[in-house]
């Protein structure tokens, strides 16, 4: 293959992480992002103005989108660590696939896309459990890749 899929999934994941923030701004500005005041985007007064201007449902959607964005960024170090540990382990043994890295990277992206869709569209408690399940599936898979990499590198 002319490119390394695991390496390419890192910038793809970052782009995915940015999407919910843009979605939140679209909600907060009611589809007019040029009207967004970007001087202090994390200020409490800006958040208060959104809360005042938006309906409860719109503000809840805004909050969910920002939470989704933050969650992606919080999980990026785990994903990147799993990718590089997996690459190191597969390079050590000289065979791609011993750690299952490519499958993990494609699976992680699929899980996180489904996670994002669920986070941005869910308005009920029941569906939030599906989102939590997706989160834990990806997290446990990343730990499994780290564990397999540790096993290969320790052998």
Automatic annotation (TrEMBL):
GO terms for cellular component: membrane. It is found in: Membrane. InterPro entries: MAPEG-like_dom_sf, Membr-assoc_MAPEG. Pfam families: MAPEG. Keywords: Membrane, Transmembrane, Transmembrane helix. The keyword Transmembrane helix applies. The keyword Glycosyltransferase does not apply. Coiled coil: none annotated. The chain crosses the membrane at residues 73-89, 101-121, 133-153. This is MAPEG family protein. It comes from Elasticomyces elasticus. The lineage of its organism: Eukaryota, Fungi, Dikarya, Ascomycota, Pezizomycotina.
């Amino acid at each position: 293959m002319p490119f390394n899929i695991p390496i390419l999934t890192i910038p793809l994941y970052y782009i995915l992480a940015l999407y919910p923030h843009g979605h939140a701004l679209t909600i907060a500005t009611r589809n007019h992002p040029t009207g967004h005041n970007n001087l202090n985007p994390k200020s409490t007064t800006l958040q208060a103005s959104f809360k005042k201007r938006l309906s409860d449902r719109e503000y809840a959607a805004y909050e969910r989108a920002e939470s989704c964005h933050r969650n992606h960024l919080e999980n990026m170090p785990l994903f990147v660590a799993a990718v590089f540990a997996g690459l190191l382990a597969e390079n050590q043994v000289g065979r791609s696939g011993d750690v299952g890295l490519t499958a993990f990277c494609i699976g992680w992206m699929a899980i996180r896309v489904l996670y994002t869709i669920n986070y941005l569209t869910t308005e009920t408690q029941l569906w939030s459990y599906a989102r939590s399940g997706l989160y834990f599936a990806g997290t446990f898979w990343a730990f499994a890749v780290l564990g397999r990499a540790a096993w290969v590198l320790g052998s």
